[in-house]
Design brief:
Radius of gyration of chain B: 18 Å
Strand content of chain B: 25-35%
Structural class of chain B: alpha+beta
Largest interface: A-B, 21 and 16 residues
Order of helices and strands of chain A: EEHEEEEEEEEEEHE
Number of strands of chain A: 13
Radius of gyration of chain A: 18 Å
Distance between the termini of chain A: 46 Å
Strand content of chain A: 15-25%
Number of helices of chain B: 10
Number of helices of chain A: 2
Oligomer: heterodimer
Helix content of chain A: under 10%
Order of helices and strands of chain B: EHHEEHEEHEEHEEEHHHEEEEHEEH
Chain lengths: ~240, ~300
């Protein structure tokens, strides 16, 4: 297998059915001659754009995307040049999903690996039930972000809304701005050297420069909810 | 599910093509609400001293001319009626509340869809795509308009259960979501003299706004009251004579996108409805915050 270097495959959604596009992108997983760079024109808020990718290709969406863009992403680097609707990069496994504008609710929900970058604001429930993915939000994140987040890391350069990290497990949250309120069992923790280097690593991965990791505050689980009590182990 | 669309014209050009724009938006929301559809248009003001009613009768051959002639005989002026499928807009030479009472007394066989000086409401069961075609939505002009596509959850699919719901003179409500305490609130509102035609939860929200404003609340105050008194999921859009307002429940369960350019302000359940508008790619786009009332009025936008 080899990637064709230098060429950009442009697909105009005003002329090409969405399913045809997604099928062609899926076919890259097993293609003998892989097309390495794609541009999707006229997305017009269509749902399920570039979902289920499983190849190290670059996909640029030239406009606003609808729901569940780049869901279940593996290996691919997907960039939305605009805003994304509900459920961006839901259950991302690996690769990178970047949005230059805002992302709607539940960005990176249940993500298991890879990196999700929102250059604008993320709306409510960003990183809900996070299971290992990394999330970097350059703007602010909405209410109930990182709800029940199990593992993975979230860096918010702006503010966080109400009930940050409600019922959180082992995910690590870093917020530079204000936090409107913390959710149940989520507490502020000391920012130590290992956390500063972790933030620096995530900022570098997201292409964020000139931000001091020391400006962030760390939040995580107090491990006091009933789920953490050994007496309740039999209930599961 | 359900879909909501709203469009507010800032230029004469958008005003002239308001129906065409709103129809395109509504069609994008077809699959979110295939059970019924409806629109409220703010257009064609009634002359001073007169008012206009939108009326519905299931029979498209209903004799609207006779009704309009009776109205003219009662209140003076020339009979004026514009039929649109099984709806008709009748201009009556008196205040809207009096005109409304007169129709209720003399023609119990017709249903009042809206009353006021500028509002017209059209709604019917069936696919939004078919509705838009049947009612010629694309031909309408106007200063602003709301539309709704319904996927029924809480009550039967009927014309009366379709949105928008009239909530008073020149006012209407469209709703995406479901209310869980509507039976209780309906009982309370009936005691206050508010009447209901259906078992629909959204009609209760409309009745609630009507009651609060009857008791002296402003629209913004009435909407803020929803946060305390209505339990459930909602994105509401409310049309007024001068503009519209948007409110999402405190958890923001249901989607809403707002967008603004120099030519228009739009709201929709999804961006793809807004994508049909001229200049959408360059619009300022944002999601309304939960539990926050957003409103636009003609004077404020023009300023």
């Amino acid at each position: 297998m080899s990637a064709t270097a230098g060429t950009v495959e442009r697909v105009d959604l005003a002329a090409t059915p969405l399913r045809e596009l997604n099928q062609r992108l899926h076919d890259q997983a097993t293609a003998a001659e892989r097309i390495g760079h794609w541009q999707i024109l006229n997305p017009s808020g269509a749902h399920a754009l570039a979902c289920g990718l499983d190849a190290p290709i670059e996909v640029e969406i030239m406009g606003h995307a609808g729901y569940y863009c780049a869901g279940m992403n593996k290996l691919a680097a997907v960039t939305v040049h605009g805003n994304a609707g509900v459920g961006l990069a839901e259950n991302i496994m690996s690769g990178v999903v970047r949005v230059t504008g805002n992302a709607s609710q539940a960005a990176a929900a249940t993500g298991r690996g890879g990196l999700v970058i929102v250059e604008g604001d993320a709306s409510a429930r960003c990183g809900i039930s996070l299971k290992g993915a990394d999330v970097v939000v350059r703007g602010s994140a909405g209410h109930m972000s990182a709800f029940m987040a199990q593992t993975g890391r979230m860096v918010v350069l702006g503010d966080a809304g109400d009930a940050l990290g409600d019922s959180i497990y082992e995910a690590r949250l870093y917020v530079r701005g204000s936090v409107k309120s913390l959710g149940a069992d989520c507490v502020e923790k000391e920012l130590e050297d290992e956390h500063r280097s972790e933030i620096a690593e995530l900022l570098a991965a997201a292409g964020v420069e000139g931000v001091d990791p020391g400006e962030f505050r760390r939040y995580g689980s107090a491990r006091k909810l009933y789920t953490f009590h050994v007496d309740n182990a039999g209930s599961y | 599910m359900c879909g909501i669309v709203g469009l507010f014209a800032k230029t004469d050009d958008v005003q002239a093509r308001l129906g065409a724009h709103l129809a395109s938006m509504l069609l994008e929301m077809n699959d979110r609400g295939p059970d019924s559809a409806g629109v409220a248009f703010y257009r064609d003001p009634a002359p001073a001293g007169a008012s206009k009613l939108t009326l519905h009768h299931p029979d498209v051959a209903y004799d609207w001319a006779a009704l309009a002639a009776e109205a003219a005989a009662e209140f003076g002026g020339e009979p004026s009626v514009h039929r649109r499928e099984n709806h008709a807009v009748v201009v009556v030479g008196t205040a809207a509340d009096e005109a409304e009472a007169w129709v209720g007394m003399t023609h119990p066989e017709v249903r009042l869809m809206s009353a006021g000086s500028v509002i017209e409401i059209y709604k019917e069961v069936g696919l939004p795509r078919v509705f838009a075609e049947r009612f010629g939505v694309a031909e309408l002009d106007g200063s602003h308009a709301l539309g709704h596509t319904r996927m029924a959850t809480e009550s039967r699919v009927t014309t009366d259960g379709s949105h928008p719901f009239s909530t008073g003179l020149d006012l209407c409500l469209v709703h995406n979501g479901s209310l869980s305490n509507h039976n209780r609130v309906r009982k309370d509102l009936r005691r206050e003299g508010i009447t209901f035609r259906t078992e629909n939860d959204s009609e209760v929200a409309a009745g609630y706004l009507m009651w609060r404003m009857r008791e002296g609340a402003t629209l913004d105050q009435a909407l803020e009251g929803c946060l305390a008194d209505l339990d459930g999921f909602y994105t509401f859009a409310v049309g007024t004579a001068d503009g519209f307002a948007v409110l999402r429940d405190p958890i923001a369960c249901k989607p809403a996108v707002l967008a603004e350019t120099d030519e228009w302000v739009a709201m929709a359940s999804e961006y793809r409805a807004i994508a049909t508008l001229p200049g959408a790619e360059e619009a300022r786009i944002w999601e309304p915050e939960p539990a926050t009332v957003y409103s636009w009025e003609r004077d404020r936008v023009a300023a």
